[in-house]
Structures are given as C-alpha cells and as structure tokens.
Amino acid sequence: MAQFWQQVVSGLANGGTYATLALALVLIHRATGVVNFAQGEMGMFSTFIAWSLIENHGMTYWLGFAIVLLISFAGGSAVYGAVIKPLQRGGELAVVVATIALLVIFNGLAGWIWTPEVKAFQSPFPKSLITIGDVVISWQDVGTIIVSLACVAIVFLFFRLTRTGLMMRAAALRPGTSRLMGIRVTLMLAIGWGLAAALSAVAGMMAAPVLTLEPNFMLPVLVYAFAAAVLGGIDSPVGAVVGAYILGVGISMLSTYVDYITVAPELQLPVALGILLVILLFRPSGLFGRTVVRRV
Amino acid sequence: MALLELEGVDARYGPIKALHGVALSIDEGQMVSILGANGAGKTTTLRAISGLVRKSGKVVFAGKPLPRAAEAIARLGIAHVPEGREIYGELTVWENILVGSCFRRDRREARRDCEQVLENFPRIADRRRQQAGTLSGGEQQMLALARALVAKPKLLLLDEPSLGLAPTVVSAFYDVVTKLNRDAGLTVLIVEQNASIALDVTEKAYVLEVGRVALEGPSAELREHERVRASYLGY
User: Fold this and answer.
1) A134 or A55: which carries more pLDDT confidence?
2) Which of B132, B151, B170 is the last residue of a domain?
3) Which residues is B175 bridged to in the sheet?
4) 3-state DSSP helix/strand/coil percent for chain A, to nearest 5?
5) Residues A180, B74: C-beta atoms closer than 8 Å
6) Is pLDDT of A291 > 60?
C-alpha cells in the first residue's frame, strides 16, 4: 500500500507539470484556434534562460524564476505579434506550420547557445524526504504539485474575476464582435500568448530538476501535455488540468504494476497514448469537451 | 446638426465592391432606417461605419472624421448590434453585459450602468447567471441590445434585429428602442428587411439598391412611394 501512495504522489507531480503545459496549450487553442506545437520548446528555452541566470549570474532560484516569467511573457507576446498575427490571414494551416517551425528554431537555438550537453538544473525544494506512516515522498514532488496547483488557480481566478480576463475570453470567443465592444482584440490575444509562454516556463522549470536540462527535454512533456489536453477536451481548461493529473497518475501506475512496462520503460509513452486513442474513439471531444449546443 | 454623415462612401470585400458612393446623414436624436433587398449593401453600410469593413470616402461623426480601427470607433460612442445578435453563448448573461462596458475607464459608473440596464430588461435579469446561449432568440436580441447600451453610445446601429423573431417579440423589441430614443434621446440607425416595421418606427429612411442609395426621404412619404410599396411592402 505504501508503494501505491508513493506512486500516486509522484504521478500527481508529473501530472502537475503536464497540467501547466496543457493549460498553456488550451489557452492558445481557445485564443488562436490552433495547437502551438512550439509550446514545449518555448518552455525549454525559458528554462535555459533561468539556468543561465542562476548558474552564470549568481541569482537565487526564485529570483531567476520570477525574471524568467516576465521574459517569457514578453517573448510569448512577441511571438504572437511578429509571427502568428501576420500569418493568421493565411489560415490555420499556415499558423500550425509556423508553430512547427518555431519548435525547430527554438530547439536549434538552444543547442547553439547553450550546447546540447546535459546540464543539472537545481531544484528549489529541499532534498529531504517526507515520511507519513510508511509512505515516503520527496519535497520535489510536493513542491511541483503545489506550484502547478497555484498556477492553475491563478489562471482560473484571473479569467473569472478580472476585467482583462473577461475581455480575453470575449476576444477569443468572438473576435469581430468584441472589436465592436471596444475591446483591443490583438492586445488581448498577445496577452494570452504571453500567459501561455509563462505557464510553459513554469512547466519547464518544474520538470528540469527531474529530467535534467538539454534541448530535447520538453518534447515528451509536450506529448503528454497534448495528450492530457485532448483527453480532457482541448477547449476545456478544467478538462485539460484534470486530464493531466489522470494521465500522470495513470502512467505512474502503469509503470509500477504492469510488468512489461516496468521491464521496458520505452513502452511508457506508446502504451499511455494507445490508451488515450481508445478513450478518444468513444469520446472524441474529450472527457470534459462539450458539443456546443446553440439556439438560433 | 448631423451626428453622422457619410459622403461618397465606397466599401469592398476583396475584389468585390459592395458600396458605391453611399451618402446619408443622421441628426442627433433621430431614428433612421436603411431598407433594401438581400445583398443591397445594408449590412455593409453598418460595417463600414463601425470599421469592420475597409471604406473610402467621407465619414464624419460628431464633427470629426472616424478613426480606422473598429475598437477605436466603438470607444467614440458608436455601438453596433450585429446581424444574428452575436452574443457570447458560453458566457453568462451578466458577463455578456459586462463585456459591453469593459473598455470604459469610469469603472464604478460602468458597473452601475450594467446593473441599471439589466433592471430595465426583467426577462433577462431573471437569468443573469445562466449561460447566454440558452436564451431564446428574442431574449438574445434583448441581451445584445443591453450589451450595446452599457457602452453609453451616442449612436446605436441595429442590424436586422427582427430576423427570425416572432412578430410580438419584434414589436416588443422596437417598443424598447423607440422608448430609448424618445426618453433618452438616443440616435438610432436601423437596417431592416421588415420594411413595414422600420418605416413605422423611424422618421427618415434610405432605400439601398446594389450598393447605391436609390431613394431617401421621410418614412411616411416613402411608405406611400409606389416603388417602395411594390418592392418592399408587397401591396
């Protein structure tokens, strides 16, 4: 039983990382109508900046963390303004291709600037373990769960309670009509891209101490986050977050209790995604996705 | 004094020219309608005024030329209730109304106006926490109007508000609009296919045909006009 609870906690920690990135994917999908395939690499790039601030410029972890959030926000907005917005006239496919191009560009740039060799990224949490009964869990896991829940809560409160949040939701739902309400739609979408970039930076900085830092470390995280978003419903923030935790715990369970996967860790990703495909066959719009009903 | 004046206004969708030198003028406190068949350019005229369609020619609002961006035009006091109502179906009724006042800097007054306007629409006030997409067509039209009013507009543009609504609902809607005009002095420009009701509620009307103003005059006179009777009133 101890092993079970340990696996739940570590699954929730991984799920928290996926949830943060999945939330970023959902934000972009609602605002721009496309999946941003570069979302993980944007988080990876942010994490490298954080590494550089902490290792080369002697900043404390949390100061570097805060500065990187600001840089990522500005960077995400800039990507929207410089690349996505001009391409939107060319249709969704043009934007999707652009995000794939950005994925490759960020990946290549990171390798060029910081070299592809693996770096250790320090954890902001104590190395010690927490023991409850015979269950032993790490501060890293607990910290990751707390940070991811905090991110999710902040994003939800921002959209529920602030005027800017309401304007952003309106701008995403009906861009043309929102302009008639005096809403600066382009600015709202730029804020959305900035917010998503900041979220993916958090995901990167939470994942890096566990996965170690190198230009490809966010690719599997992106795949899981994408799977979580699709599982929950790509247009449902709640769904994406719940989907991410389900996925995190599910993978944890699979790799502990299913012998094949314990023996062959390479099977983790394919098996997880195979199960996902089966679920989607029965619920194409995801667990929390709704088919929109409209009265005319 | 004219609140809004258009002179020689052209508008196009890509290569297709939709308006050819449209001229019209609306005085402050007036109610004016634009009539015409499908594709005559009625909606395009409204979209040109509110900046959703690129236009050329002269457009003067409250003595000044209009800016280019739709959001800037809205902030000057032109509220456009678009065709098909375009409410935010996923947001609640109350959020829909708040969105209409979002740009205002006088936050506290804006909020009070939202409460006030909602009070004047008891049917939708009862459903303020409900998702707006679940409202009936008539209620959605009222909500779209309420959402426009909280922007405190000087000029209200209504695009086909009667479309798809039952006759009693249409007349209830126009009662509200007429009352706003009479009591609050709101200037209103209405685009309608339902020529009969439009001529009833407005004092002046324009008839558009293939992107040009074909006829204009006091609504009472146009009602008697042979071409209007034959083409738009059907008797």
Assistant:
1) A55
2) B151
3) none
4) 75, 5, 20
5) yes
6) no
Range A8-20 average pLDDT: 93
Report the alpha-carbon distance of residue A21 to residue A16 in Å, rounded.
9
pLDDT of A294 over the 70 cut: no
Q: What pLDDT shows up at residue B199?
A: 93
Q: What is the pLDDT of residues A213-265, one digit of tens each?
A: 999 999 989 999 998 998 888 888 888 999 999 999 988 888 888 776 666 77
Give the Cβ contact number of residue B1 at 10 Å: 7
Asked whether residue B145 falls in the same domain as residue B59, the answer is no
Taking only the tens place, the pLDDT of each residue in A227-241 is 899 888 888 888 899
Q: Is B15 exposed, middle or buried (0-12, 13-18, 19+ CB in 10 A)?
A: exposed
Q: Retrieve residue B13's tokens.
A: 């969708």
In a domain? residue A250: no
Answer yes or no: do B218 and B167 share one domain. Answer: yes
- Determine, yes or no, domain membership for A251: no
pLDDT tens for each residue of B1-60? 799 999 999 999 888 889 999 999 999 999 999 999 888 999 999 999 999 999 999 999
Write out chain A residues lying below 8 Å of B80, CB-based: 180
- pLDDT of A195 > 80? The answer is yes
pLDDT digits (tens, 9 = 90+) for B51-65: 999 999 999 999 999
pLDDT of residue A60: 92
Over residues B148-154, the mean pLDDT reads: 95
Beta-strand pair B204-209/B31-36: parallel
Question: What is the DSSP track for B62-119?
Answer: TTEEPPSSHHHHHHTTEEEE-TT----TTSBHHHHHHHHHTT-S-HHHHHHHHHHHHH
Could you say which of A166, A174, A181 has the minimum Cβ distance to residue B74?
Answer: A181
Q: Any CB–CB contact under 8 A between B67 and chain A?
A: no
The Cα B199–Cα B197 span in angstroms is 5
pLDDT tens-digit map of A71-99 = 999 999 999 999 999 998 888 899 999 99
- Structural domain span for residue B107: 87-151
- pTM, two decimals, is 0.89
- Alpha carbons A221 and B72: distance in angstroms, whole number: 42
Mutate to test the interface with B, among A167, A180, A187 (most CBs of B within 10 A): A180
- Token digits of residue A218: 């966010």
Q: How many domains does chain A have?
A: 1
d(CA A154, CA A257): 35
- Tell me which of A174, A181, A288, A293 to substitute to probe the interface with B (most B C-beta atoms closer than 10 Å): A181
Residues 6+ apart with CB under 8 A from B25: B2, B4, B5, B6
Compute CA distances B206 → A225, A271, B81, B227, whole Å.
56, 67, 19, 13
List the single residue in A174, A182, A295 with the smallest CB-CB distance to B75: A182
The alpha carbon dihedral of A238, A242, A248, A250 has a sign of negative
**Residue A154 belongs to domain spanning:** 14-218
**Measured distance CA(A204)–CA(A209) in Å, rounded:** 9
